[in-house]
Records
---
Amino acid sequence: MLNKKIIKYTSRLSFHSPWFIIIIFSGLGLIGILNHSMWRDELNPWLIVRDSESFGDLITNIHYEGHPLLWYFSLALLRRIVDNPIIMQIFHLAITVGSVTIFCLYSPFTYQQKFLFSFGFFPFYEYFLTSRNYAFSMLFVFGFCTFFFIQKKNLYLFGNFIRFTSK
């Protein structure tokens, strides 16, 4: 009985929908992130944020780091919520799922191209499973491309996307 209901509801799903890619990407990514043990270069920004006592101290500690300030400030805010690096992985999951959502919903590519790009090496592994600041770049580049195509007159918005992409 339950099996027939599941088949009935899943047969209504459109497997050529961008939301199908996003749901599969999110589910596999959540499994991957929860099973990924973070490397030293992933934990280094978290340790810098953890050992900084104030925002001024944080700015002093990241003076020689090459990562954007937005990454450290986001981690500092997350650390005030939960003092566990897993929150950084969950936050990274949200950023990357947002990036892939923008890509799948607004890009002019075919379904197969969207699927192959989303599960490629860079979007799925390098920008997703490893918790580094690369996901912000992907989010802001996709956001810039989307808003530039939709609304070409708001230069202040475009400048903010480019500013947040850089350091």
Note: The mean pLDDT is 85.
---
Amino acid sequence: MTDTPSLSEPRLRPEGPAALAWIRAAGRLPGRLLPDWLIALTARTGIAAVFFLSGRTKVDGLIAVSDSALFLFAEEYRLPLIPGDLAAHLATYAEHLFPVLLVLGLLTRLSAVALLVMTAVIQVLVYPGAWSTHLVWAGLLVYLIRYGAGAVSLDRLWRID
């Protein structure tokens, strides 16, 4: 008896180039199962939810900037070069407008750039210790800037993209 399998015995472990081909094919399978439009839609809605929900914490009622948001921007965030009340209004409105545009897939690249700039400001001037969270946000936004909104979007429907 030998340890070498005979020609009639099936191999349990592929070896050599055949194994690499099998591994490559298995690695490409998820990419084939996930269409580009679904990836873009997931990125758009995921990052939109983060910013929209943040914006909702800054308002009273439908869209009135809350006193607590005004206080935070004036006393805690203290952005240079811009008064706290103006920063509060701009950030609040941006956190409502751009996420809605992202969900609709309208002006996606512009909206993603605006939120990426906002992310950079938050990272550098407000919460520098939250880099891991901001990196995730930036990853989604950079994807949208590079690839656009995808097939399921108003950008594509209206041929803006």
Note: Residues 66 and 140 are 29 Å apart (CA to CA).
